Structures are given as C-alpha cells and as structure tokens.
Amino acid sequence: MVYYTQNSERKVTIAQSAIAGGIASSVTRAIAQPLDVLKIRFQLQLEPIQNGSKYSSLLQAISSIAREEGVSTLWSGHIPAQFLSISFGVVQFSTYERLTQTFQRNEPQFYINNKNYLNFCNGAVAATFATILSYPFDTIRTRLVAEQKINKVYKGFSDSLLTMIRHEGASSLFKGIVPTIAQIAPYAGIQFYMYKLLTESIFNRLSLFQRKKAIGSVIETTIIGNVIAGSIAGLVSKTCVYPFDVIKKRLQIQGFQQHRKAFGRQMYCSGSLQCIMLTINEEGVLALYKGYGPSLVKAIVVTALHFTVYDEIKHVILQMHE
User: Which of 188, 184, 194 is nearest to 116 (CA)?
Assistant: First the structure.
C-alpha cells in the first residue's frame, strides 16, 4: 500500500485502477478457486460434520471430490467465477478510488480527519455497487459448483444461464441477493478499513516494511507488509459476516435441490429469514459457520492476493509515470 506524505500524493487514474482491479481479481480467482468449491460444498450439506455428512474435513473432501468427480471439479464454475471476479474487481476498485479521490479533492480536511471511517464507507459502497452488477455470475457459479459432475444438469456457463432464465425466470439469477448485500457491505468495509489502517498508519512507519526505493517522496510498504495486512483484513472481515454467506448459498440453489440428492438432505425455503430459522432449528446455530475452515483459508489467501497484486500494479504504474 502506498503511504503519502503531505501534499505529495500520487494518484492512478480511474481507468488504471479499473484495469489493476480486474487483473488482481483474475489472478486471485485462478489461484483460490478450489478453496471456493470446497467452501460451497460444505455450506450446502445439511448433515452435521462427521456425523453422516458426505464431507467431513478439508483433506477428505478434496480426496472424495477428486476420486468421484475428477480433479478438474475443484475448478468447477471457473468461467463464470472469472467473469464474477473481474467485473467485481473492476467496479469495486474503480468506484473506491473515485469516491476517495472525490473526498480528497473536495473535502481535504474532512478526509484527513475521518480517513479510517471513509475507508470503511467507501469500501462498503463500492462493493455493494459491484455486487449488484456482477451477481448473476455468482449465482451461475454456485449452481455449477453445486451439481454432481457424474450427473451434470448444465453443459456449461451459457447453458446454465439460458436454462435458469427459461425455467425459473430472470429473477432466479438474483436469488439470495438480500443476504449477500447485507454481508458484502460490512465485509468489504472491514477489509478496506483494516488493510488501509495497517498499511497507511502502522506498517508504513516501520522500517522493516518500508520499500527501499521510494517514488518521489511517497513511502510505500513492501510486498510482505501488504500480504500480512491483507491476510489480517481477510481473517477479521470473514469471521464477522460469515453466516450471511451460508444463507446466500442455500438460497441460490432453491429450485435446484432435485439435482443434489446424491449429496444428502436438501433444504427448501422461500426467503432469508425462513432459511436462517430452518438452519438453526434443524442443524443448530453453529451450522451458520459450516464451511468456515476452507472459507477462512480462502478469505486470508484471496484478500492478501487481491490487495497485494492490486497495489503492485499501481506501484508499477506510478513508477512508469515518475
């Protein structure tokens, strides 16, 4: 992350931040997709872990999926997932930079006095906007991951899109969007708040995490500092909002349960509140944290990679224009 000394701020353009966000999201998705597949499989099973459930641990799940459906299944839904990640990253980072630069330009003193609060708010607004625009890719990705590969329902991304619209209506592409927005706003807000706090107020002041070569008078944290900050931001944010993610995934497969009978019992619900109550009543409160292990690993890896790759691209751009 870049730390700016007073009156020496160097900015990337909105277009450059959009490109950097898209590339960072694509790279992160390619690396972390297997963790996402594991997370979704755990979230969708109703049986208690290690008590009749199909998947009982990370290693057992990996082995079971690879043996029964093939190793490539760990990258199920990768095409819509890439569309989701790239579109989300482009909109999120460009919107965040636009909001931040607007405050810096029009209300500089207010920005300085409330920087941490604005980082939270700008991150939350940017992620909400990005979620609404990219959400259909998320629903399709979930369907492709949820199906059993030895008994496929969809032939691929295009077929799943057209089939859902034809049989369930276009609104089916937005199933679960209410808990998603309830989750993503605080999730992204906490991510940006924690990452910026660590890189702009703590790590950048420690010689251990300062780059040896500065861009003008701008002090930057090292890649290691960015990775550590991103990991902490991912851990804290995911832990705070995880139950919303479980409910979202269960809502996204409503109308698709008949194709998942090989995975065990299925849940039928018509809205967020009913889904929450059924989950707690039938599986217990801790069921809201099903899949938390692989999800936490994914959140740490993804957040660290996302912010680090994004900031490294920004660093290269600033160097080119020095």
Answer: 194
